[in-house]
Design a protein that fits this description.
heterodimer, A: mainly alpha, MetI-like fold, B: alpha/beta, Rossmann fold, 4-stranded antiparallel beta sheet, globular
Chain lengths: 276, 259
Amino acid sequence: MSSTKEGLIGLSDSKKTFSFKGLFKNNYFLYALSLICFFLFWELVAVTFGKFLPRPIEVIDRVVYMFGHTLAGKTLLMHLWASLRRVFIGFAIATAIGIPLGLFMGFNKYVHAVVKPIFDLFKPMPPIAWISLAILWFGIGETSKIFIIVIGAVVPVVINSFNGIRLVDPDLYHVVKMLGGNHRDEIIQVSFPASLPAIFAGLQISLSMAWTTVLAAELVGAREGMGFIIIQGMNLSRVDQIIGGMFVIAITAWMISAVMTYLERWICPWKMQLKK
Amino acid sequence: MENAVKEINNFKIECMGISKHFGEGNKKVDVLENIDLQVEENEFIVILGPGQSGKSTLLNIIAGLEMRTTGKVFLDGKEVTGSGPDRGLVFQKYMLFPWKTVFQNVELGLKLQGISKTKRREVAEHYIDLVGLKGYEKSYPHQLSGGMKQRVGIARAYANNPKVMLLDEPFGQLDAQTRYFMEEETERIWQQEKRTVIFVTNNIEEAIFLGDRVITLEGKLPGKMGAIYTVDLPRPRNYTDLDFLKLRSKITDATKLVL
């Protein structure tokens, strides 16, 4: 076995010769081990205390059941789609407002001076606090839910787009100037590409904000969606349904985030260097 | 500032009485004081000064990126009023566009000036070849070493066919070995494609190795004109030649500053 001078977990040559020492340096093995321990612990607690916590297998059973059977007239996939649709619409609106607003704040100090104090006033308000207001204004339909998602998701997009522009090295603009470019060239050649990684980081945060807010909105009043499944589970005292719903949300959100990461690598392949 | 045209002499670049200060009142910092400089066509001028002697500021003033407080800069007898593609600037921190490949970085200047794609390809490949980066056209800057990055920086400036090349401590971030090598490369490139060069450095050996003339700036701030040394050693020069070392100690002895 090599002494792995790199000191990095997962870089050892455990594939060549099997050894326990090598196995414990393999990241994927450790991930799996961690998850197995977690589920074993859960199983143990569930078996010991009974009715407060279902066993993992019972949760899986319930999720499978919900795929095939309807709850309030809809299967699990239809509920998931209801939430996803809200997240996508809210996220799209937040992006459409947030990116231009953040960019303009970065480009123009007057826009910045006008928007910043208002933005700073609203920024620390938890988006969930807007729920009651949204329901009074828009009722308990789709509009109020999407409104809350937009409120929650727009903030990180604005902040990151603004910082993306603000943190560009001014010498990069000098390069364009020295090569004979005008102000328009500076924006196209420098501002936009240089701020892309920061904008993407904002979109990732914004997406998780969208999930948080959609759940909160659905908990308050909805006839469909993952929040409905969870609140329904509470009303029916079905802990397996609540936990199952939480896992379905987690896996879906994780998959969407992975797609975003993939998109980001595809659009900004240079980003890994900027991160250092 | 009036747009005077001088026709008295044939200097490629002429600086007359350049002074520069930042800020006003009690925050005022004098950076340069009364700098005069004449550079001949195709001459390799090195401006040698310690840190905080205003040498980079002087270069930025010639580049047109910073305005002088007083004085005038002439390029081919015409007063310089701003930045422009007739001067090619090479940055200490390379300043390549990380989202562009080597090829795209080098062709940028031509692209901004609306040169056709075929012509751009031809010129960019010529200069990528000249700086010794053939085969790396499709690489991104983060895949290159420091020396290679600066080669791209040099090719990018050259590709725009500037009248004057301005290099701002271009090898300041390189390790000693790479630095020697890049100095040899700079000389080779300059011999192959002669240009008027103004090269800023704090390294005395680099200055004597490369310069036709070495101009010292006396720091601390504000930077003032020191002595001008003509280096008439045959090229390529050798760091350990007796004449090289004599000139080195002559410059060292003449300045109060450790170089």
